[in-house]
Design goal:
This protein is an alpha/beta fold. It has helices at 19-24, 31-34, 59-69, 85-91, 104-110, 114-118, 143-146, 177-186, 202-207; strands at residues 39-46, 49-56, 96-99, 126-127, 130-132, 153-155, 166-173, 193-200. A six-stranded mixed sheet has the order 1-2-8-7-3-4. Strands 5-6 form a two-stranded antiparallel sheet. Bound molecules: zinc ion.
């Protein structure tokens, strides 16, 4: 169904929309809002894990994520992967998606798992096999603290990849430590793992090896 108003600023959806988006008639954000998303679509590696980064974590995306996750504006859930969901469904249709963990407290507080909702139109099977204890915010910790990540994120004992390749998905990549830890926990379960993140911190983007 065609969206009439921008889900973010409530302007007419056709406001400043570029011609291709206007033709597709499936925009969720108006042209003014879309232009504030900084598409990167770069590939890098973390400890050998291929990682694709879609956007730069700029003020606009930070505010949009805050409104969605902390102010629980669930209407925004389809916006984040909207441009890439078809490609994900096609390219990874035989894969298994693994979402990065959210603590039980956060899920209860929000009433939803932010990544599960962001990916609700995804046709690839989604698993959430990690257990996250406590609610520690990565970006608030000093590097030494982050090293202890293995103490609060673990993999369910019953997890099986069933011979499938795994695509790890997260919304914000700050240092890469969560996804790196997840990769190490899953490595023994399958031969192929890749990661896709919605956005990465500008500092991470600046210093990572792009390929
Ligand atoms: Zn807008």
């Amino acid at each position: 169904m065609k969206q009439e108003y921008c889900l973010l600023c409530f302007q007419d959806i056709e406001e400043e929309l570029c011609f291709t988006d206007w033709l597709r008639q499936d925009a969720l954000l108006c042209g003014n809002c879309q232009r504030q998303l900084e598409l990167l679509d770069i590939r890098t590696r973390i400890d050998g894990l291929p990682v694709r980064i879609l956007y730069k974590y700029n003020d606009f995306l930070e505010n949009m994520l805050y409104r969605y996750k902390e102010n629980r504006d669930i209407a925004l859930r389809d916006v984040f992967f909207h441009t890439h969901i078809k490609e994900i469904n096609d390219k990874y249709r035989h894969w298994q998606i693994i979402i990065m963990p959210s603590s039980v407290e956060k899920i209860q507080e929000r009433g939803f798992h932010h990544l599960k909702e962001m990916l609700r139109l995804c046709k690839v099977p989604i698993a959430d096999p990690f257990i996250k204890k406590g609610n520690r915010k990565q970006s608030m910790q000093c590097p030494k603290e982050r090293l202890k990540i293995s103490q609060y994120i673990s993999l369910e004992e019953a997890f099986h990849a069933n011979g499938k390749s795994l695509l790890l998905i997260d919304d914000v990549l700050t240092t890469g430590s969560t996804i790196k830890h997840a990769y190490h926990l899953l490595r023994a379960h399958t031969s192929k793992i890749e990661a896709l993140v919605l956005c990465a911190h500008p500092l991470f983007v600046e210093f990572c090896d792009k390929n």
